[in-house]
Amino acid sequence: MEGFHVKGSEALCLGLSLAASGLLYYLYKKNKTALDKLDIAPHLPIDSQLKDILKATPGACLKYAIVEGTVQPVGEPLMSHFQKETAGVLQKFTLSEHRLVWSNLTRTWIDNIRVLLQRENAVPFVLVGPDETPVRVLSPLQASGTHMEMIHEKFHQVSSGLVDIVGQYLSGEKPKGQLETEEMLKVGAALIGAGELVLAADGTLSLQPPSDGSEYFLSLVDFDSLQGELKSAAYWCQWLAVASALLGTAVLVWVCRRYYCHRKAQRQLEEERRIFERMSEEPRASVNLVEEQVENICVICYTEPRNCIIMDCGHVCCCYSCYQALVQRKCPICRQDISRVLPLHFV
Ligand SMILES: [Zn+2]
Ligand SMILES: [Zn+2]
């Protein structure tokens, strides 16, 4: 690798594309595994027979099952900050700052969002079936899936004066405003849950995160839509991982090609150097002949005889030492690119 350097931009592209393809492949596998698990998991109605099914199961535990029921709080529900009549069991309040930031790379203003505050609250709740059989939902904040709906969204716009606008252009940051949102899992919502189903010794049914590391889902959408979301995510992750890996391979091929060209040029220079070295060791009779002819003196140093044929233009104008000292590989006479040099022999 002597004299050859991988450029910073090439290393960055290669690193980013390989990291992105690795991450996307991991997400694809995660979604695909979750999808396969959901496909084979038993879909059980919440009713009085559920306890009998679990009693007949070893360890009174189903490692992965899907249940569907209506959300009911165990004690007092949570009340919305913004819609006073709305009660729920999970609540997420977010305050985020929206601004435009000047990008020197793209020469445009880019949207930037910064979360200033996020708070999640939960109270114990159950899923109840048509005959009021309850299934306690444990650790709901660990679950994936869309299980909260947006019940409040308000954007507080920033008003800027002339002085502020000038300051924003100088600093490269334009505040747009703050967005406050409140999401809730409402009491009475129909919820689908996929996880480990357990019957405790006291007869309580519970849904909890699977102990084998499978994905725990709580979702407001129906089962088919949940599968559709996972399929779509897996599909995009798969193709983006392939595209990212192809980009990484293309960068790698480009770097290898550059290295090959660099090595080829170095070998050629080495070959030329050896030829001229051999020539300098030959008897000087022919050189003496050249020295007698002033017009055959190197046009650069005016000392040594001309002994190089510059290819492809064919000019014979300098000695090998001066050729080696050229800053650019261009003919000193016609400025054409030099592909190689040949030794000039007088006989
Ligand atoms: Zn010279
Ligand atoms: Zn030339």
Give the averaged pLDDT, no decimals.
88
Order of secondary-structure elements: HEHEEEEEEEHEEEEHHEHE
Count of helical regions: 6
Name the overall outline.
elongated
Uncertain runs are none
Percentage of residues assigned to helices: 25-40%
Distance between the termini: 41 Å
Ligand kinds: zinc ion
Structural class: alpha+beta
- Binned strand content: 25-35%
* Largest sheet: spatial strand order: 2-6-7-11-10
Query: How many distinct beta strands?
Result: 14
| Biggest sheet overview | 5 strands, mixed, barrel
- In angstroms, what is the radius of gyration? 37 Å
Briefly characterize the structure.
This protein has 347 residues and is α+β, with helices and mostly antiparallel strands.
What can you see in these coordinates?
The protein is of the alpha+beta class and 347 residues long. Among the domains are: 61-221, no CATH class; 291-343, Zinc/RING finger domain, C3HC4 (zinc finger) (Herpes Virus-1, 2-Layer Sandwich), CATH 3.30.40.10. The protein contains six helices and 14 strands. Bound molecules: zinc ion (2 copies). One zinc ion is lined by residues 310, 313, 315, 331, 333-334, 336. Residues 298-335 form the RING-type domain.
What topology emerges from the helices and strands here?
Blueprint: H1 8-40, E1 43-45, H2 49-55, E2 61-73, E3 78-79, E4 87-103, E5 108-122, E6 125-128, E7 134-137, E8 149-157, H3 162-171, E9 173-186, E10 190-199, E11 205-208, E12 217-219, H4 223-281, H5 285-291, E13 308-311, H6 320-324, E14 340-343
Parallel strand pairs: 1-2, 7-11
Antiparallel strand pairs: 2-6, 2-10, 3-4, 4-5, 4-9, 6-7, 8-9, 10-11, 10-12, 13-14
Bound molecules: zinc ion (ZN) (2 copies).
One zinc ion binds near residues 313, 331 and 333.
